Here is the input.
Amino acid sequence: MSDAQERAKQPGCLWAAGAFFCLLLVGVVSALIFQPEKLGQVKRCLGPIMDTDPPLENTCDFPINAELCLYSKTADDICETKRLEPGQGFDRAEIEADLARLGGLLRAETYACKLPYMPGMVEDMNTKRMKQGCLPEGETRQ
Here is the structure.
């Protein structure tokens, strides 16, 4: 057998690149089908919390749906969801009024989703526990 025939039988790097591309495509399609809420997460778009005005602003170049939850020691929790355009944020006076009404802050949590998704609770595929995620707009929140 000649060298050219032996090389023709061996898989080249083009085959490996094609296989990688196919696996990547399968991953994206399966995420679209089984976990669409993961594709809507944009927590990175919520800007700095402290010493900025507005606090918790949208730092991305597209509108998002953002949620700010303030949890108290007395279980009188306050969650507010807003659509934020680029550069917009939560109103500092409203946050301070909510903090005064709580009577003691335990923790604050934020979450952001691309449009048309809304922040809400979703079931984890692996553990079957409820966790924060993004739901299609109009779907009931839990």
Helices lie at 3-9, 13-34, 36-39, 92-102. The longest strand covers residues 105-114. Residues 36 and 135 are 8 Å apart (CA to CA).
